[in-house]
Amino acid sequence: MINRLFILLILTSCSFAAFGHKYYVSIAELEYNATKNRIEGSLKMTAHDFEEVLNEKFGKKMEIENIVDTSDAGIYMKTYLTDHFKLYSEGEQAIPNYVGKEVNLRQDLFFYFTFTGVVNPKKVKIINTILFAQFPHQQNIVHYKYHERTKSITLVPSKKHEKISFD
Length: 167
Hints:
The protein has helices at 2-19, 47-58, 72-84; strands at residues 25-33, 38-46, 85-89, 92-93, 95-103, 108-116, 123-128, 139-146, 149-155, 161-165. By secondary structure, the chain is of the alpha+beta class. It starts with a helix and ends with a strand.
């Protein structure tokens, strides 16, 4: 009986590992810093989902926690982020500044960044196409806090950008 239970447990675990997970979501947290006149942000996703981007680019399995920001993979990673996560205000693109990354024990990947040159932080347009090419069901949630108010949007491959306005 115990052997059958053990085998069933192993087969169940293997089937989940083979199929991955059902949900593909990133969550961006943005907040306007009035003192520094910039928008500060973080972007959270599953590390192995982003590793798919790197694996496709470099043709080999890569682990994000082993990538140095100054390496070819690290530079590509930063370029990918700036190409796929953009912020506009009054028609002007804000300047992205990569701060760093970290991976926790649960394999959550966090990227940290700021945007400077934001013309009007009360009205922004967000473009977030992170992981859309890899996962057609990807959802990118963006929370933007301006002073004490927060507004949220969800972007999907069929809706890649949206405006957020505070009155």
